[in-house]
Amino acid sequence: MTGTWTDPTSAFDPEKPFRTVTTDDYMSPEAIWDETRRFKVPTYGVGRLRYYYKWPGHGSMLWRRLRYWPTRRTVLRFRGEYNPKTLRREKTIVDKRPIWWILGFIAMAIAPLFAPEEGQGALLAAAAVFFIYAAINLCWMLIIGTAGIFSLASFAVAGAAAYGSALLSIQFGLPWWTLPILGSVIGLVFGIIIAIPAIRLEGFYYALLTLGLVELCRVYVIQSKVFGSATGGLYGADSYIPEDWSEHAQLMLGYYASGAVMLAALTLFRFVNGKRLGRILRMAPEKREAFAEAVGVNYRAARIWVFLISSLAIGAIGGFYAAHFRGASPNLFAFDTLLLSLSMLVIGGLGRAEGAVVGTLIVVFVDRVLIDWGPLRLVLIGCLMLFVVLFLRGGLFGIKPQFRAWRDKKKSERRSSRAEKGGEMLPEEATETPDKDLLFFRRFDKMQREFLKKLVTDQVIAEHRQNPLGQHSEALERLLTYFRRQPTVEKYAITVVEPFKSYRLVALSGVRGVAPRLVEDKIYHSPEEAHHGLFLRRVQDLLES
Amino acid sequence: MDWGFVFANALTLACIYGTLAIGISITWSSLGLINMAYGFIFSISGYGAWLTAQHISENGLIVILAGVLTGAVSGMVVCALAFIPIHDKPNFTVRGLIATLAISMIGTQALLWYFGPRSKSLPPLFGDWSLPILGMNMTADKVGAVVSSIVLLAVVLAWMRSSRRGLEIRAMMMNPHAAAIVGIGVRRTGFYVMALTGGLAGLASVLLSQTYYIGPFSGITPMIKGVSVALCGGLGSVLGAVIAAGLLGINEAMTSLLLGGHIVLITQFLLIIIILLIRPRGIAGILDRAREA
């Protein structure tokens, strides 16, 4: 690793041979810089970074927006920005949910065409049940998620509306299209009755009370002769499905009609949750009512409104239920139904429309299609629900934000555990230093010292002993320049005790008027010797730093 | 009107509901958990007692003990599943409620799957005698139910007043954070509480099975009744639960005598709603935010 350095000043005296010294090879001072700057912290693959597809955007189309009536919203929410590298206009879709919804609607519309031939009837019937349950769950989600009222009575409202309208239809021979209207009236009345305690009670008191109400309805319906305690349900209501159609056509009509009901429920959800009422209610979640009230949000009125609106809607869906199934069964009030529908909401994620729909899809699929499993399928649903509740914060659709939060936490943990990149100062010291140049200087100085340490070799020391002053090889020159540039405080110097006879090493105080202190007892007998001793001392200090 | 009959019925019902409601109440106030798996604990301890009666012994004491033990063990299982993992996580109350509901669903369906839908009945635990007191005829099961529930409740309350563990539980009921700060293990106390309340549910189950049957879903109605009694008495108050159990027991006995059995639930809930409208935190519930954790 050693090279040979030729003194360029040898050329001044061509009589003599060139002076050469063995010395270090050339070493780039940038090597240390690059090595220090290199990212040596182990990074673990925690998912990929956020990635958005960038659509090209034309300048003239910048302000063109497609809005849909009656809202002032654009069909897709875009963010327009300039790419800082290419300086081109780009568009990013901020919220891709509308795309997924539309794809889902298309899938639902064409799904019956692709249903397998055998078991098509069961599948279509299950799909109709899914649509109706999803509609009820969407309205219920308004109460539980948006309004934050933990009411368990929504299936009781639906059941009451179904029973009431079916009874009226049977008694008075009312046509099918009156059933949802009757149902909504019954639902509204029920909603008002249930809402009265909701004004005074809070949280769990209300949940337990409504649970009791459901049980009350169940026992009443099971025992009441009018509601068919003997036949296990009330059947014979008028239906919108004509009896004389073929079975397949009846199923298809039921499928699309229930699908339309779910669409209507989605629209309602969107208009309540996404507008003024929803904003007010999300302003006043449970346990922060006092704050909302203090800033002038009338959350009580908003809660009652949401409650009544969704009771009305649930009642209408109950009426549709009666018209769809030609009656009602006490199953609507069963504790299991309540649990299943709660699990639909929970699995999907409380407070989201897509959560209600997808959760219902999953649970209805397990419950209605895997019917061979017997009680095990409810066990499966229960396990799913338990898993979701124990490990997820917002159901299936909360996985993404939860994962991101976790990843951010991990990232910041790793960032804070990095000691190397922080430089010479401790992090807390660094934040409190007003002169940030100091941070960079110390860091630079550290890197420089690291580099210089590598230059200290036997050859360099031998070269200095031979020739302390005068032309030096590159390595030695770098070392000496660094030493020369050090501050005066505690800088070594040579003091002459007796000219040409004795020299000693001192350290300067750096303060005017204060004498330098003696460093060692050793006495050097020539200036060269003294220079070399001083050099060795500095090298020693450098290696120790 | 047969006042003696009404009184006897009311007393029996009050004792059984009180046993249930005090369990729910203690769980809520010390752990902050509404244990909706209570009905499942109720059913499974009935099955435990039934299995014991089938395979080990028909001795009343042993059967009761088996029911109480099964209840305590399943209470601890519920604690391990639904309290330990989430009690320090955000939104614990709602998540705990849903988790216990899920456990209830899994458990009852598993019972249905394993034992089948046919209900079982226990042998008479207290013999066949009857005791005329004050001109009314107290049958053995009623006397047994009243005596054993009162004895067990008295033992539990005395234990909670006098023992170290009871002190810990009461400290948790008053202020869980402060209790944790002075070194009371939240998780350990959770296990004690759930074992205790599970045992109480087991006892109520065995006692009620003298009049009803044991089935996979037989726990739901008693649980809802127990929850309503606890609610009416004020969640977290043992005294309130006792008062409410007495009131609702009298109401149930009177209604079934005067108006007929099918109106019982309606008057029950009307009574509860009226009480809650007057006192939104129940009869003896602490007003305002006593427990925010």
TrEMBL record, chain A:
The keyword Amino-acid biosynthesis is annotated on this UniProt entry: no
Membrane topology (UniProt): Multi-pass membrane protein
Subcellular location(s) of the protein: Cell membrane
Annotated ranges, domain N,N-dimethylformamidase alpha subunit: 440-543
Top-level taxon: Bacteria
GO cellular component, one term: plasma membrane
Key word Transit peptide present: no
InterPro entries: ABC_transp_permease, DMF_alpha_dom, LivM-like
GO molecular function: branched-chain amino acid transmembrane transporter activity
Keywords: Cell membrane, Membrane, Transmembrane, Transmembrane helix
TM spans (from-to): 98-115, 121-143, 150-170, 176-196, 203-221, 253-272, 304-323, 343-366, 378-399
Record-given protein name: N,N-dimethylformamidase alpha subunit domain-containing protein
Species in which this protein is naturally found: Hypericibacter adhaerens
Automatic annotation (TrEMBL), chain B:
Top-level taxon in the UniProt lineage: Bacteria
Entry similarity comment: Belongs to the binding-protein-dependent transport system permease family. LivHM subfamily.
Molecular function as annotated in GO: transmembrane transporter activity
GO cellular component: plasma membrane
Name assigned to this protein: Branched-chain amino acid ABC transporter permease
InterPro entries per record: ABC_transp_permease (IPR001851), BCAA_transport_permease (IPR052157)
Primary localization: membrane
Bilayer topology annotation: Multi-pass membrane protein
Membrane-spanning residues: 6-26, 33-50, 62-84, 96-116, 143-160, 192-215, 227-250, 256-278
Source organism of this protein record: Hypericibacter adhaerens
Keywords, in A-Z order: Amino-acid transport, Cell membrane, Membrane, Transmembrane, Transmembrane helix, Transport
Pfam family, one: BPD_transp_2
The keyword Transmembrane belongs to this UniProt entry's keyword annotation: yes
Localization per record: Cell membrane
One GO-annotated biological process of the protein: amino acid transport
